[in-house]
Amino acid sequence: MNLYRLLQQRLEAGRPVRVGLIGAGKFGSMFLSQVPTTPGLQVAMIADLSPDRARTACRGVGWDAARIEATRFTDDAADLFAAPEIEVVVEATGHAPAGLSHARQAIAAGKHIVMVNVEADVLAGPLLAREAEAAGVVYSLAYGDQPALICEMVDWARACGFRVIAAGKGTKYMPEYHASTPETVWGYYGLTAEQARIGGMNPQMFNSFLDGTKSGIEMAAVANATGLTPPPDGLAFPPCGTHELADVLRFGNAGALHHAGQVEVISSVHRDGSPVQNDLRWGVFVAFEAPNDYAVRCFQEYGVVTDPSGRISALYRPFHLIGLELNVSVLSAALRREPTGAPTGFRGDVVSTAKRDLRAGEVLDGEGGACVWGKLFPAADSLRLGGLPIGLANRVPLVRDVKAGQPVTWADVRIDATDDAVRIRRAMEAAFPA
């Protein structure tokens, strides 16, 4: 990839890659921890609602006093967009409406944007990527997070001449998790509420990983970036170990894969709760097909694990390093002007789905809350039913009842049509009729 070599050329020329970070939470802190050991990369500014908390985060990841002193801290992201020295902006707030605003401001200011905020990407990423291209800057998914790693594996397979059968990630899944709330989440993780509190764990955030929302969001991002498509009835979460990827992820394998060329998430536990052997809970995968009989013979000759036909195989990566790998996106944008994955169309959407019978007058509490979870839909189906995107399901009141398991629609809620995030989403829908 030669990114490090290109970075050293910039360092030798006295032109380090200067970055502005928005949000010094867990992902942002992991990124910050790698900066002191990456010569030629500088974080010049950090925007956070609490600059003092951001300074504490820097100290916590090993920054010395001199580096902290040389960094500008602010509580206003607009300061960062106005700074001429900033070349790449990293959006790591995790708040979808804020992410949309920050991305647009960065693009307008002529800065590359690395979108850790996958919630914002799924809400209106195709439009943001188009706007970035028109402005001559890069809009990129965040390397280290699973969607960008999956995009890389899909690109590898296609560049080699293989047809991609499926791509996705692993997680721990049971059907009852869809109804989990911040009040019940710790029992599923095997923790007490006190243990979680001592560990500084946010119950709503952790619940979004458990209840299926985060899986839907990440697979929508992959679909929009790669051209792979969601299954029509939502993710199946088939139990599957790494040794059986090629066998399970075959087109027509009921309960596992609906069609060739789809995104899917595999479970690390069977439906009875027993563990899957060689699970891929933290990893990513791509399943691909040999294009001809000669390639099939090569698979046999070189010990490639396949399905019984000998034609389908799979590669996987057992884990991802989250923010510790983010440098790859930052440097790719700055040095090669290339994203590590970016939406090219509107193929997958994540629709708010009732966790229980909801009543008119209730106020939805967003991703990972007690009211709704995010279900992956083909974008065309989401538009057809008028599904409410999960990224807009926070602090909006219901105007009519919604039964458990049913999608919440735009017509079911009272929403401010003048809100910036709503307007950007509606503009994306108009620009990308699925």
Could you explain how this protein is built, in words?
The protein is globular and about 60 Å long. It is built from 17 helices and 14 strands. With 434 residues, the protein is of the alpha/beta class. The mean pLDDT is 96. Helix 6 runs parallel beside helix 7. It folds into 3 domains: 3-144 and 323-336, NAD(P)-binding Rossmann-like Domain (Rossmann fold, 3-Layer(aba) Sandwich); 147-173 and 212-319, no CATH class; 348-431, Type Iii Antifreeze Protein Isoform Hplc 12, CATH 3.90.1210. The protein has helices spanning 3-12, 26-34, 51-60, 65-69, 77-82, 96-108, 118-135, 146-159, 185-189, 193-198, 203-210, 213-226, 245-248, 293-301, 327-336, 379-385, 420-431; strands at 17-22, 41-47, 72-74, 88-91, 112-115, 139-141, 163-171, 262-267, 284-289, 312-317, 348-354, 363-365, 372-378, 394-397. The strands form 4 sheets. The chain has a 6-stranded parallel beta sheet with strand order 3-2-1-4-5-6, sandwiched between helices. The protein has a 4-stranded mixed beta sheet with strand order 8-7-9-10.
